[in-house]
């Protein structure tokens, strides 16, 4: 019996998130179904983090214990032959016996894609948010660095447990233009629930002239200073523009795919 670490990629469109739920289709449930076909008798496969309904992944990390007598490459092929077409294992390796993909992680990295257009584009909008009116790219790039460092992100999400800390440390927050799209990259030690989608929504509001950069800066100290959150517009960026691309660990492991 060995503990395996796998890298999962999935199109989140038809999944009700990653975490197993009664009746509804989830990433964890499909992975466990595939494992059962290989003789797995465990109670639960472990995931590095929860992704919302509609969110995609290129570098989700999962682990499970399995008595497997063949090679890692054979396991990769066997899993993929039993997984649905909108999900795949991209890498397999044996991990340390106590490895936990969630609790051992030291950072997670997400990408968000958007483009501007007055008319819907069905072929692009599965993986990117169509925004209109057009955004000011300079304003996007001015707002993003405000989130780098340790801040109180209470205005940007909810903690996993009621009353727990809303402090998070962001290592990178940046936008770059790729042809007619804008790509956002954010990496942090951990994220609040729906935090990335909220960050994107607020930055787009800045780039459309709906809220000031100064209001964003004030929001990051809001809870500590007893400020209200009313300066920021309410809302979230759509889930379909978001992809989990990397989970990192203290020791090197194959945990990401672009």
Stated plainly, the CATH topology of the largest domain is called: Alpha-Beta Plaits
Helix and strand run: EHEEHEEEHEEEHHE
How far apart the termini lie comes to 31 Å
Average pLDDT number: 93
Q: Proportion of β residues? A: 25-35%
Structural class of the helices, strands and pairings? Answer: alpha+beta
Helix count from the secondary structure assignment: 5
Quickly give the CATH architecture of the largest domain.
2-Layer Sandwich
Please identify which CATH superfamily of the largest domain we are dealing with: Pseudouridine synthase I, catalytic domain, C-terminal subdomain
Largest sheet: 10 strands, mixed
CATH class of the largest domain: Alpha Beta
Give a verbal description of the structure.
A hairpin with an 8-residue loop joins strand 2 (46-47) and strand 3 (56-66). With 258 residues, this protein is of the alpha+beta class. Helix 1 crosses helix 2. The protein has two domains: 2-104, Alpha-Beta Plaits; 107-246, Pseudouridine synthase I, catalytic domain, C-terminal subdomain (Alpha-Beta Plaits, 2-Layer Sandwich), CATH 3.30.70.660. It is 19% helix and 29% strand. The longest helix is centred in the C-terminal third of the chain and has 13 residues, at 195-207. Strands 1, 2, 3, 4, 5, 6, 7, 8, 9 and 10 form a ten-stranded mixed β-sheet that branches. The protein has five helices and ten strands, in the order E-H-E-E-H-E-E-E-H-E-E-E-H-H-E.
């Amino acid at each position: 019996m060995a503990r395996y670490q796998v890298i999962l990629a999935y199109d989140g469109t038809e999944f009700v998130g990653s975490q197993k739920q009664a009746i509804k289709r989830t990433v964890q449930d499909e992975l466990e179904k595939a494992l059962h076909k290989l003789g797995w008798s465990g109670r639960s496969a472990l995931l590095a983090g929860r992704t919302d309904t509609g969110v995609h992944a290129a570098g989700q990390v999962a682990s499970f214990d399995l008595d497997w007598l063949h090679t890692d490459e054979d396991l990769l092929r066997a899993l993929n032959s039993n997984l649905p077409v909108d999900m795949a294992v991209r890498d397999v390796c044996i991990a340390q016996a106590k490895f936990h993909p969630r609790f051992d992680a030291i950072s997670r990295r997400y990408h968000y894609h958007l483009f501007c257009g007055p008319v819907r584009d069905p072929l692009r909008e599965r993986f990117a948010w169509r925004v209109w009116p057009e955004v000011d790219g300079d304003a996007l790039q001015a707002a993003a660095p405000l989130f780098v460092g340790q801040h109180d992100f209470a205005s940007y999400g909810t903690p996993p447990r009621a009353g727990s800390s809303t402090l998070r440390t962001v290592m990178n927050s940046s936008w770059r233009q790729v042809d007619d799209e804008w790509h956002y990259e954010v990496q942090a030690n951990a994220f609040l629930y729906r935090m990335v989608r909220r960050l994107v929504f607020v930055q787009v509001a800045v780039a459309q002239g709906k809220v000031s950069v100064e209001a964003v800066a004030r929001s990051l100290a809001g809870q500590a200073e007893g400020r209200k959150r009313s300066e920021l517009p309410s809302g979230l960026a759509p889930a379909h523009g978001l992809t989990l691309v990397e989970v990192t660990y203290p020791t090197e492991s194959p945990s990401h795919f672009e």
